[in-house]
Amino acid sequence: MPMTMTLEKIKITPELIAKHGITDGEYQKILAILGREPNITELGMFSVMWSEHCSYKNSKPVLKTFPTQGAKVLVKAGEENAGILDIGDGLAICFKIESHNHPSAVEPFQGAATGVGGILRDIFTMGARPVLLMNSLRFGSLDQAKNRRLFSGVVAGIAHYGNCIGVPTIGGEVYFNDCYEGNPLVNAMCLGIIKKDEIIKGKAAGVGNPVYYVGSTTGRDGLGGAAFASRELTEESHEDRPAVQVGDPFMEKLLLEACLELAQTDAIVGMQDMGAAGLTCATCETSARGSTGIEIDLAKVPLRETKMIPYEIMLSESQERMLIIAKKGKEKIVEDIFAKWDLHAAKIGEVKDGNLTRILDHGELVAEIPSKALADEGPIYIREEKKPAYLEEAQKLDLSKIPQPKDFNAVLKKLLDHPSIASKSWVWQKYDHMVRTDTVFYPGHDAALIRIKGTSKGIAVSTDCNSLYCYLDPFEGGKIAVAESARNVVCSGAVPMGMTNCLNFGNPMKPEIFWLPRPPSAWSGFLKILKNAYLLFFRRKGI
User: Fold this and answer.
1) Contact 265, 333 (CB under 8 A)
2) Separation between Cα atoms, residue 427 and residue 396, nearest integer Å
3) What residues does 189 pair with on adjacent strands?
4) Which of 56, 95, 156, 463 would disulfide-bridge 60, Cβ 3.0–4.6 Å?
5) Is residue 360 part of a domain?
6) Mind listing the pLDDT tens digit for each residue in 217-275?
7) Which pTM does this prediction carry?
8) Is 53 a catalytic residue?
């Protein structure tokens, strides 16, 4: 079918291509995939889906070295929105950690709040009920007013979203160092509980099955957020404020309950969060996972702003929205449940035969792209590496030249005065850690601990990393982060079962940032040794 472009006649120029973060080589690949020039909507869709944030085009070769299989693994890393582990007795835990660094640097309150909202959706989109939140935060020196503003804004945003939606924030960590000056790291984690035979996948299966848009309306907030999150922060980044989403935790609470209620029916085939890249991500990823086509009409998408063009609707990252693939003939069940919760449930399209993501606007074709080309077949790069020059100097330490303190009490007081060591009660007292009444260990313990109602089971979780160790020796620092988290779980009386990570790096185009201090295979070797060591420990303890 010929492509029509009556709504958007914007000429695709080299300058426009570069502005979308697409290289000359990537554009040539796009031309080969489509067999023609893309229009502006298609260019935007490739831009967000082929960004580092969505495609991991620079880091995927390294991340693939992680071990992701095991007897307890029900959903592996990278397969779906979150990983799932079997905890026995028909139950499983679903968990994930994700960053919202750039948005939090530009708009700390909303950046952090929507980070919490996004990670919650990644959990309940799989049919799991979120039962706990965690976080890992890094800021510059509190001597600077800008860092104090970022710190207080991020903590307030996390507290606002978690407290309002009614999921306890029961643990985390906060560090301060000059290297985070104006560029905080904000990582949010969520864990949910699900029956292992009720897991929902994010796939579009069954030709003719209806595609529903549910939840909040679509606006221009968060426009192009995935591409924004993949760019390097500069002094001009404050101009990207429109790329930061605006969250509504009360709307998400309704969405959470409606989705979990729907999951208990036989009306659902698949469900996908409209997170990074919004409708673009939700449509092409569900289509790619199901090895089917998908077609939607943007005229049926609920909007909260007027005169939005297809480019804006497809790239918007407005919050609290989900895409649902329902069973044909079960439409009334879907519509009645969401009407009960006062939420939109708009039938915007259906699953098609083939392999294309097709976007219509009032019946007119405005984008047509192979789904896997967007979701799975983005460019992959092996970047140049170079050992950072600072490491040689940083690793030199002559202990004999460090004078012995005359007053160790004064030294201890100085250490305790440092904000990275001092009490974090100012932070966790702002979080509701008792809601749902399942919290066993309050914040401040080695690991967070909750009970699972109606069972004798408990879940211990820890988020840990000493950034200074990673700075001094990235390889050893990474090992220590894994070991520290595992030790904290063990010290709480629990058996480590699995882990997730959220690796916060700078620009991978810089060789010193991309440098691998050891061969990638060393990671899997270390993790195998660690696993065996813990298994030996547990056997000796009779566990």
Assistant:
1) yes
2) 35
3) 97, 134
4) 56
5) yes
6) 999 987 854 444 444 545 554 555 455 888 999 999 999 999 999 999 999 999 999 98
7) 0.91
8) yes
Place of tokens 């679509």: 218
Residue 275 structural domain = 14-60+201-375
Question: Is 433 one of the catalytic residues?
Answer: no
Burial 448-480 (b: 16+ CB within 10 A, else e): bbbebeeeeeebbbbbbbebebbeeebeebbbb
pLDDT at 1 over 80: no
Total structural domains within the chain: 2
pLDDT, tens digit (0-9, with 9 covering 90-100), for 384-434? 999 999 888 888 888 888 899 999 999 999 999 999 999 999 999 999 999
Q: Is residue 161 part of a domain?
A: yes
Q: Do the beta carbons of residue 355 and residue 291 sit within 8 Å?
A: yes
pLDDT of residue 399: 83
What is the DSSP secondary-structure string of 233-256? P-GGGGGGGGGS----HHHHHHHH
Please work out, in degrees rounded to the nearest 5, the angle formed at the alpha carbon of residue 535 by the alpha carbons of 534 and 539: 115
Element (H, E) at 277: none
Tokens 């709480």 correspond to 492
pLDDT reported for residue 395: 80
> C-alpha angle 7/12/14, rounded to 5°?
160
Q: The sheet that has 448-451: what strands, in order across it?
A: 439-441, 448-451, 458-461
Kindly state whether residues 371 and 484 are assigned to the same domain. no
Tell me the per-residue pLDDT of 296-333, one tens digit each, with 9 for 90 and over.
999 999 999 999 999 999 999 999 999 999 999 999 99
Q: Exposed, middle or buried by CB within 10 Å (0-12, 13-18, 19+), for 416?
A: exposed
Q: Which of 53, 102, 344, 433 is catalytic?
A: 53
CA angle 54-59-63, nearest 5°? 105
Q: In what order do the strands lie in the sheet with 210-215?
A: 268-273, 321-326, 210-215, 344-352, 293-297, 356-361, 364-370
**CA 413, CA 504: separation in Å to the nearest integer?**
32
Q: Which two tokens stand for residue 462?
A: 């820890």
> Same structural domain for residues 299 and 162?
no
